[in-house]
Description:
single chain, about 150 residues, alpha+beta, Nuclear Transport Factor 2, Chain: A, six-stranded mixed β-sheet, 4 helices, globular
Amino acid sequence: MGTDLFGAWQRALNSHDGDSLAALMTDDGVYEVVATGSVFTQATVPLSVTTMHGMSSDFLVSLVSTLQDGDRYGVEWEVNGTNDGPIAYLGLPASGRRFKIRAAAIGLSQGGKIKLHWEYWDVAGFLAQLGVQPPPMVVFGLGSFSEEVSED
Length: 152
């Protein structure tokens, strides 16, 4: 992503400027927010910024750490804000509560722009800060196999 690109990415998010974020992507770039299952292109990524700032007018990104190896990058950040607007995609009204989210992304840049970006953060922790009850606990375990595996 590069130092300049990290700073430009942070400024685009903090200024609520989705078009600036789109300008940081290659024409065929993909920006995926894995936590919500959302995938954006250069044409649709402004919607991501609009959604974030629609649910929090004081949404603020602070960089924690960055790492770059050639065109591959990693970035960690913290988001602070107040949920003063609805979270439409979840059907949740504004809670008025403050939140803090730690997040990270890995990606690939090309020509100083974002080519592929995969973003990860804790949705359950975010919703808990807003007072949303978590879903029932799901336990995953290893199943046993009834067939023997031969080493022929």
